[in-house]
Write a structure and sequence with these properties.
Layout lengths: L15 H21 L3 H30 L4 H23 L5 H36 L1
Family: Belongs to the hemerythrin family.
Protein name: Hemerythrin
GO molecular function: metal ion binding
Length: 138
Amino acid sequence: MAYFEWANDMVIDNGPIDEDHRKLVDLVNELHTATSQGRGQEVVDKLLTQLIADTEEHLREEERVMEQAKFTNLERHKQGHTHFVNKLHELRQKQQQGSVTVASQLSSVLRDWLSLHIRRNDKELRQFLQQKSRQRSA
């Protein structure tokens, strides 16, 4: 069984946003597997590099979708995104300074991001987009 499972309550758009979120779930599970096998230090550098690049690109795209939809809570979302990216960069800096706890810290940060941000904050976006779609159909 995976450390973190994709669940229906995480679905936002049945499209590119969800695809990116699923990749994040895969990275969390890859990191957890490596850590539980004593290989966390071995894989954390590669994963952090990939994660930072993928996350920054994903968040830019998500914010573009929000702007186009005139999402009412865009600024609050952007603040959450900035906080998350800053946390990833902090962990990257700790890792480069030789910290041996970065893999477990990263695992926790990612699990929390998936659980809290996607299930709560991004769910707001899903509901907003669904409401806009219903208004256009009416």
